[in-house]
Amino acid sequence: MVSNAVMLTFLYAIEPVYNVLNMSLSEDYFRLLMLIVVVVLVAILAERIEKIRKLNELNQKLKIQTDKLEDANQELEAFAYSVSHDLRVPLRAIDGFSRILVEDYEDKLDEEGIRLLNIVRDNTAKMGHLIDDILLLSRASRQEMKLNELDMTALANSVYQEFQTDVEGRDIQFTVGDLPHAYGDRAMMGQVFQNLIGNAIKFTRSRNPALIEVGGEVKDKELVYYVKDNGAGFDMKYINKLFGLFQRLHSPEEFEGTGVGLSIVQRVIRRHGGRVWGEGSVDEGATIFFALPKDMPKQK
């Protein structure tokens, strides 16, 4: 039998050891020894099989939870898009009727009434901006990506030109380095530069001159870009809030905004397989970095 042949082979293999130790050999003894070895091996194998089974169960549970989380995120994004879109109509009505009251019934309203109506109009305008930003965030998560090689230098300069009405009359020194080309969706990467350059223009409002620099370089397997300014900056102890949705590090009285822009930047960069981070100091400016993979990223 095969088992006997294996046993005899094993017996002859270790026989020299027993000879050296002056120990006697017997077939029964080695049958017992072989049985012990087999039992130990079966126990080890059973333990490993059980660990693999438990690991497979955990992976399956993790996959289920991941699928549920992804479904919940998609539902939340769809809800945000729907609500934001549906809010536009009543918001326009509030703004329109408030404007009619101010323009056509001004002689029948006292100063306090006109002031209150203007507050209503200002707040509907803020709500309109917030809805626009929520829709942009939703699109950044949902829209299909069309990946192409991008001239990032040309893209940054093009985006800055769109802000000419905002920078008119200001002393701004805007510089763009020789940025490495990247693979990405042009519209979405344009949105990234719009938010970063727009923030730099906004937060350098009190600087004369305002310094805004866009740079980039190749680092290992990444393309690292940054937008740097000498504006209001921020306290690094609040860095964890920098890219949070609706998180603001400055009061509305200091700087307007909805707290959505950097969330859009982070969402777009992550969809491109990259990462984003920031550095800053109060009253000394800020630098927002983002890194993209050198090779064409997988769509997310």
TrEMBL record:
Alphabetically ordered keywords of this record: Coiled coil, Kinase, Membrane, Phosphoprotein, Transferase, Transmembrane, Transmembrane helix
Residues forming coiled coils: 45-79
Reactions that this protein is recorded to catalyse: ATP + protein L-histidine = ADP + protein N-phospho-L-histidine
Domain Histidine kinase per the UniProt entry, residue ranges: 82-296
GO MF annotations in UniProt: phosphorelay response regulator activity; phosphorelay sensor kinase activity; protein kinase activator activity
EC number, as in UniProt: 2.7.13.3
TM ranges: 29-46
Statement: the UniProt record of this protein carries the keyword Transferase: yes
Enzyme's top EC category: transferase
InterPro entries: BphY/WalK/GraS-like, HATPase_C_sf, HATPase_dom, His_kinase_dom, HisK_dim/P_dom, HisK_dim/P_sf, Sig_transdc_His_kin-like_C
Keyword set includes Glycosyltransferase: no
GO biological process: osmosensory signaling via phosphorelay pathway
Protein's UniProt name: histidine kinase
